[in-house]
Design goal:
Helix Hairpins, Heat Shock Protein 90
Length: 409
């Protein structure tokens, strides 16, 4: 629609410009003939007479009259000629006249040149030999008021068409943005609905599996206590116990993910929370850097320690044995608390920076795929964000940002 409006405006402008040139030509010819008739009835030819002609026909658009001899000497002139107009080449207008138009077609210049009669031929039609106009060149400049009105209308039409096109483009852009936002909201609602259904299913499965697993684990442990070390069935029992413990851990993660997980924020020391998470790992290969960390911050120390333990465990598993995990604590940006955990592993596959936080998504053979999803839920419960990206020097970096006032406060 915008393109049609612009094309229509340009088409109308071109048509009105052509019409303005036609009107100017007709008006110029009419004025030139009228001026010649007036001059032919006078017996004198000077600036005063020409000025009277300009005054008489000025209302119709005559602006300037000039009379010269055949050799170009000025006889008389009156009016004001158009200044600053680059008149293009004139084209024929009858046997003894030419016309040229100003750019835009609102003004015209007509030159009337008496022909040179051949030797011995009768004089051409025109003023008698004793008339002041005999053998003189006439020049008329006409400024058409009607052409100006047409050109003004053409400009207004083009401007209105362009403005309407811009408005349509703007409305289209707004509409497109609203459609995309609606699609994002719809996708987010669908995602939330799936997560809700997944959480309900996980809670049911977790509860149904938890008790049988506990019974199975207890019986296997009792069996291992009674079997001697050299018994052929002991190895199988140990495998059953190990897999039972793994399923029990998975069940615990599923229940943790399915529960609402309320956040109880309080004034806590963020450095102490990070050190508690490092100590709970029981590993000394963690380098902890503190960069102007605040002494007190509003957060849930228990749930935040759970997040950090998960990130540290993942970083430890991804890093080579000789490379320590790096943890940085400090303030970033607009007064937000930042905790960054970096490993020295292969990093994150391009395009999976967000997928790693999806439930049950994992590339590890024995991973549950719920640790990072649970970490994101806890961090977002604080009103913060958790993101993942690759470090320029290798490895992955998980960044936690917490606002000054958490939602739970």
């Amino acid at each position: 629609m915008a393109a049609v409006l612009v094309a229509t405006g340009l088409w109308v402008q071109a048509g009105l410009t052509k019409a303005a040139a036609t009107v100017t030509q007709g008006q110029a010819i009419s004025i030139a003939y009228a001026a010649r008739r007036v001059l032919r009835v006078t017996n004198e030819l000077d600036s005063h007479v020409l000025q009277e002609v300009v005054d008489e026909l000025g209302g119709q658009g005559l602006r300037f009259v000039e009379v010269t001899t055949r050799d170009g000497q000025l006889v008389a002139k009156a009016g004001t000629n158009a200044a600053g107009i680059a008149w293009p080449a004139a084209h024929g207008l009858g046997p003894n006249a030419t016309i040229s138009f100003a750019p835009g077609g609102y003004a015209a210049r007509i030159a009337v040149t008496p022909p040179e009669p051949p030797a011995g031929a009768p004089p051409p039609p025109g003023p008698p030999p004793d008339h002041p106009l005999h053998g003189k060149h006439l020049l008329f400049e006409v400024d058409s008021v009607a052409a100006h009105a047409l050109l003004w209308r053409a400009r207004v039409t083009s401007a209105v068409s362009l403005l309407a096109a811009l408005i349509l483009f703007g409305l289209a852009a707004v509409f497109l943005r609203l459609v995309r936002h609606a699609e994002q909201v719809s996708a987010q609602l669908e995602h939330d609905r799936q997560l809700k259904a997944l959480g309900q299913m996980s809670a049911v499965l977790g509860h149904e599996i938890k008790n049988p697993l506990a019974s199975l684990k207890g019986h296997v442990q009792l069996l291992l206590e009674k079997l001697p070390p050299e018994h052929p069935g002991r190895r199988g029992a140990e495998v059953v116990l190990r897999e039972t413990i793994r399923l029990e851990e998975l069940s615990r993660h599923v229940l943790e993910f399915a529960r609402s997980g309320s956040i109880n924020c309080e004034a806590a020391d963020p450095e102490a929370v990070v050190r508690a998470a490092i100590d709970s790992m029981g590993s000394s290969d963690v380098r902890f850097y503190v960069e102007a960390a605040p002494a007190v911050w509003s957060l849930d120390p228990v749930r935040m320690e759970e997040v950090l333990v998960n990130l540290l465990r993942n970083a430890r598993e991804a890093s080579p044995a000789e490379k320590p995990v790096e943890v940085t604590l400090g303030l970033r940006g607009e007064r937000s608390l930042a905790i960054e955990v970096r490993d020295h592993g292969p990093g994150i596959e391009p395009g999976e920076e967000e997928r790693v936080f999806e439930p049950f998504y994992t590339r590890r053979a024995k991973g549950t795929g719920l640790g990072l999803a649970l970490a994101r839920r806890i961090v977002e419960g604080h009103g913060g964000t958790i993101t993942a990206h690759n470090h320029p020097d290798g490895g992955a970096v998980f960044s936690v940002r917490l606002p000054p006032s958490a939602r739970g406060v």
